[in-house]
Design brief:
Its EC number is 7.1.1.8. The cytochrome bc1 complex is composed of a cytochrome b (QcrB), the Rieske iron-sulfur protein (QcrA) and a diheme cytochrome c (QcrC) subunit. There is one protein chain. By secondary structure, the chain is mostly helical. It is built from 11 helices and 2 strands; from the N terminus they run ααααααααββααα. It has 2 domains: 119 residues, Cytochrome c-like domain (Cytochrome Bc1 Complex, Chain D, domain 2), CATH 1.10.760.10; 93 residues, Orthogonal Bundle (Cytochrome Bc1 Complex, Chain D, domain 2), CATH 1.10.760.10. 53% of the residues lie in helices and 1% in strands. It has a two-stranded antiparallel sheet with strand order 1-2. A hairpin with a 5-residue loop joins β1 and β2. The termini are far apart.
Length: 273
């Protein structure tokens, strides 16, 4: 019986057709780089903004810079680069300024667990100029488009999104709630649609950022619709008791319900005697 032997040429062909470990690692690295680059590009397109609310002109930027240096630079630095007393504002975007200054949280009156809402200290034109200036320092979330602020979306979908993403801190009725270390999630009753949207895309205080990859602009519009609908209908079931849920309701029953039973018992006993 004869033994078949492979030729040197055939062995060389088999060796050259085998992929080396280095080539596989390089292919994986290229794939990861491509995927990461594509994700970063999409995130930058959806989360970062384009222009600020007012017309982005050099005069608006200069006026905003003057206001910033007169009112904000003590904590945030002359060029918004930050300081030991306040974070850098480069890249926070115009939406962050419009929310923080437009709700009176900034400038802060003093250091504390979180910035408190208080009367607004600037006109809307001044707020717009500040937003233009800070927005010019780096890309960041912009003022939302008016079409997402009309509170005319899908209230049912918005209520579901709110329950999943927001109710654990803000309460299912948007009444707010306590957090740790003296912090709290504020009530959303009476908050303007623009400020609700801006809070979602900037993540003030302890709030996470919900960019367009997490909740789409249409989803944010639906959340605003649900909150405004809830404000409009009020409490059809009766007294809201602060919308604090079963704890407040149970406490009400224990105090007033049990108290009424005791009072009735005393009255019946006194009457029989």
């Amino acid at each position: 019986m004869s033994r078949k032997t492979s030729s040197p040429a055939a062995g060389k062909s088999r060796r050259t057709g085998r992929r080396s470990p280095a080539a596989a690692a390089a292919l994986i690295a290229v794939g990861l780089l491509f995927t990461g680059g594509a994700y970063a590009a999409v995130s930058a397109t959806t989360a970062n903004a384009q222009p600020a609310p007012a017309a982005v002109s050099q005069s608006n930027v200069e006026e905003g810079k003057k206001l910033f240096q007169a009112n904000c630079a003590t904590c945030h630095g002359l060029n918004a680069q930050g300081s030991p007393d306040g974070p850098s504002l480069i890249g926070v975007g115009a939406a962050s300024v419009d929310f923080q200054v437009g709700t009176g949280r900034m400038p802060m009156q003093g250091h504390g667990p979180q910035a408190q809402k208080k009367p607004v200290q600037f006109t809307q034109d001044q707020i717009n100029q500040l937003a233009v200036y800070v927005g010019s320092t780096g890309p960041g979330p912009s003022i939302p488009d008016a079409k997402y602020l009309d509170a005319d979306g899908d209230a049912a979908n918005g209520a579901e999104l709110f329950r999943i993403n927001c109710a654990m801190c803000h309460n299912v009725a948007g009444a707010g709630g306590a957090l740790t270390e003296g912090k709290f999630a504020p009530s959303l009753v009476g908050v303007t649609p623009a400020h609700i949207y801006e809070a979602m895309i900037t993540g003030p205080q302890n709030m996470p950022v919900f960019n367009d990859m997490n909740i789409s602009p249409e989803g944010k519009r639906d959340i605003i619709t649900a909150l405004k609908y809830q404000e409009k209908v009020g409490n059809p079931g009766g007294i809201g008791l602060g919308s604090l849920g079963p704890v407040a309701e149970g406490l009400f029953i224990w105090i007033f319900g049990l108290g009424a039973v005791v009072a009735l018992t005393v009255w019946i006993t006194a009457k029989s005697n």
